[in-house]
Write a structure and sequence with these properties.
Layout: E1 14-19, H1 24-35, E2 42-45, H2 46-50, E3 60-64, H3 71-78, H4 89-110, E4 113-114, H5 118-124, H6 127-136, H7 157-166, E5 171-176, E6 186-190, E7 196-204, E8 210-219, H8 222-232, E9 237-241, E10 247-248, E11 251-260, E12 263-272, E13 284-285, H9 288-297, H10 302-314, E14 321-328, E15 335-341, H11 363-383
Parallel strand pairs: 1-2, 1-3, 3-4
Antiparallel strand pairs: 5-6, 5-9, 6-7, 7-8, 10-11, 11-12, 11-14, 12-13, 14-15
Helix pairs in contact: 1-11, 3-4
Length: 384
């Protein structure tokens, strides 16, 4: 389904957005709604959802957005007062899924249309489940010994070491199963007994509490790596092979590709001198044209790279928009999917890819256009 404009007349959709009032995500979505000539979206606070006070109107189109960047919402979801703390993601997952189901219940009761499927959301926020779904659909993903609900639980560093040895993985990413934005991630390298190091943004204070930092650092002793992993493990861990990424100008490179209504519409290149390319951790935006040229020069296919992202999105058919982390392998000819993100569309001022139907639209405007097209198509079918 293309998000490009249509001339079919008829009443326009009325949006409601579940989010954090005043947050930049909500503001950007409101800009897109108004830019399409529609009335402003009605904002439903995640706080109201968590308090059981949320309601929707008949016929509304309901979009859910991230509950992040609100200290009180974080406290209610994670039972942690400091939003920079890492702990509490397992509790966050349970409570957030409950909140999402409450949104779905209230929307269904009102006769509203939900753009994000609760079942999809539950999988997207568990890296172990998401990996298994992608792998089962034939989407290329890094090898993982923790893929799927039946995989043994990782209890501590000893378990990580055992999985690495059993599966022949000398370099892995250890991730919080329910983490986001590289929170709680360690890029671990081993080179024989006692020779372990890791790259991470996790900081541990003298009392053992874990904090997210904007500073990526190297951990050079197995004892400290073990202490970090042991502290993270109660919230659930996912282990993946550390794939060597393609580089540009000596910087590791990957892409965030936004898929709207089944089509790859937007892409941003992320580069870094560390294994983490997240922009808030010092990663930088790269040149998309250079990446496309590198892929084609190597004998690869840019179209196939985008098709990999679209196949990943097909695993979540009842969710309008996802953000896919695409990992180009060394040599630029092969690609794998690192993660699929439910709220991976925060790419301000980025307009759509050529041929996507969203060339002049940002990620939010593309979603609004896709909803409008769907409504128009339904009306045209009903009157045919």
């Amino acid at each position: 389904m293309s998000p490009s404009a249509s001339s079919t007349p008829g009443p326009a959709p009325r949006f409601a957005v579940v989010g954090v009032p005043g947050n930049r995500r909500v503001t950007l979505f409101q800009d897109a709604v108004r830019g399409a000539g529609l009335p402003a979206a009605r904002v439903v606070s995640w706080l109201d959802v968590l308090r059981g006070e949320a309601g929707f109107l008949p016929g509304e189109t309901v979009r859910m957005d991230s509950p992040g960047e609100d200290a009180e919402v974080e406290r209610l979801l994670r039972a942690v007062g400091d939003p920079t703390r890492v702990e509490g993601t397992a509790l966050w997952y349970v409570r957030f899924n409950s909140a999402v189901r409450e949104v779905a219940r209230a929307a269904a009761a009102a006769g509203a249309v939900l753009l994000d499927d609760p079942g999809d959301v539950a999988v997207l926020f568990d890296k172990r489940l998401c990996h298994a779904v992608l792998d089962g659909a034939g989407v290329p993903v890094p090898a993982s010994p923790t893929s799927g609900a039946a995989a043994p639980v990782v209890r501590d560093w000893a378990d990580v070491r055992e999985r690495m040895a059993d599966h022949g993985l000398p370099r892995v990413f250890v991730k919080l199963a329910h983490g986001s934005s590289a929170s709680g991630v360690l890029a671990v390298e081993t080179a024989g007994p006692g020779r372990v190091r890791a790259t991470t943004s996790v900081e541990r204070d003298t009392s053992g509490r874990l904090f997210n930092s904007l500073r990526v650092r190297r951990v050079t002793t197995e004892r400290e790596v073990a202490a970090l992993v042991d502290a993270l493990a109660p919230d659930g861990l996912h282990i993946e092979r550390w794939l060597p990424k393609a580089t540009r100008r000596g910087r590791a490179t990957d892409l965030r590709v936004v898929v709207v209504a089944g089509r790859a519409t937007h892409a941003v290149v992320r580069t870094s001198r560390s294994p983490m390319t997240n922009l808030h951790l010092g990663g930088e935006r790269g040149d998309l044209g250079e990446v496309r040229d590198a892929v084609e020069a190597a004998g690869g296919s840019w179209g196939e790279a985008l098709a990999v992202c679209e196949r990943a999105a097909e695993c979540f058919p009842d969710t309008l928009c996802v953000g896919v982390d695409l990992l180009p392998a060394t040599g630029w000819r092969r690609f794998a999917v690192g993660e699929v993100n439910a709220f991976g569309d925060l790419l301000p001022r980025l307009t759509g890819l050529p041929g996507s139907g969203a060339e002049d639209l940002d990620t939010y405007a593309a979603q609004v256009a896709a909803v409008m097209n769907t409504a128009r198509n339904h009306r045209a079918t009903a009157t045919a």
